[in-house]
Amino acid sequence: MRWHYRIILALAELVLRLFFRLKVKDWKKIPQHGGLLLASNHASYLDPPAIAVGVCHREIHFMARSTLFKRGGFGRLLSSVNTHPIVRGKGPDQDWELFIKVMKSGGALLVFPEGTRTKNGELQRGKTGFAKLAYMSQMPVYPVYIHGSYAAWPKGGPIRCRPISVVFGDQVGLGDLYAQPEEKPALREISQRVMNAIAGLKKEVEEEAAG
After folding, report:
1. Where are the alpha helices (DSSP H) in 55-141?
2. C-alpha neighbours within 13 Å on the C-beta side of residue 123
3. Structural contact between residues 63 and 69, judged by C-beta atoms closer than 8 angstroms
4. C-alpha–C-alpha distance, residues 125 and 123, integer Å
5. Distance of CA 127 to the CA centre of its chain
6. Helix, strand, coil abundance in the chain, percent, nearest 5
7. Host H or E run for residue 171
8. Is the overall model pTM greater than 0.70, yes or no?
9. Quick check: 66 and 57 in contact, CB under 8 A?
10. How many domains does the chain have?
11. How far apart, in whole angstroms, are the C-alpha atoms of residue 68 and residue 55?
């Protein structure tokens, strides 16, 4: 792990542990080496750093809309922590080659199958753009559920000191779909299976909270 990534990660962890009482569960399910996709629900700007802190044993690569990279120093900061530009609105027609190259080189890439932050805190339908990336790369996909980040910093709302937890799941079985011809039904099923896995983690968290 590069020194500047480690420093930024340590600062993020300090803030998340101190103000949001961050808890992480089952991070060891994520392999220490090899290319893969981390597929998470998306409720807040706090999600990427919280998941990166959770996967403390390896560097994570991120996506961010391309317009953010035009903001001078902020764009350079994003690039320094493995953040790569993505053009919003292109869906499955996105140029995925850069991201596939990252994973083929052994990188772990964080993706949000819902495409954008939820407006109400509930899980949204997965997009076919994510499914296209999974299909093209044929990389293992691991589900992630982040709980509490919507309450801590909802879309369009203020930041509040609310507890956040991150839960990692087992690899989603997609091999049979990767073997199929690339058609819309296969892409929809990839997206659905991954979102079902995230929903399963959500249920697990809620059941534990209920006692």
Report:
1. 73-80, 97-104, 128-137
2. 23
3. no
4. 7
5. 14
6. 45, 15, 40
7. none
8. yes
9. no
10. 1
11. 24
Classify residue 133 by burial, with Cβ atoms within 10 Å: 0-12, 13-18, 19+.
Answer: buried
Provide the residue range defining the domain that includes 66: 3-210
Q: Report CA Rg, the chain.
A: 16
In this structure, what token pair is assigned to residue 41? Answer: 């629900």
Per-residue confidence (pLDDT) for residue 36, from 0 to 100? 98
pLDDT confidence of residue 50: 98
Domain of 97, CATH number, reads: 3.40.1130.10
Q: Residue 108 carries which side chain, given as an amino acid letter? A: A
Among 4, 17, 18, smallest CA distance to 166 is for: 17
Structure tokens at 109: 């890439």
* Token duo for residue 19: 């103000």
- According to DSSP, residue 95 is labeled -
Backbone φ and ψ for 141, nearest 5 degrees, come out as -115, 130
DSSP class of residue 121 equals S
Distance of CA 197 to the CA centre of its chain: 13
Q: What is the pLDDT of residue 170?
A: 98
* Averaged pLDDT in 10-residue chunks for the chain of 211 residues: 88 97 97 97 96 95 83 78 80 78 96 94 92 94 98 96 98 94 88 98 91 71
- Whose CA is closest to 139, among 100, 176, 111, 177? 100
**Tokens in use for 18?**
């101190």
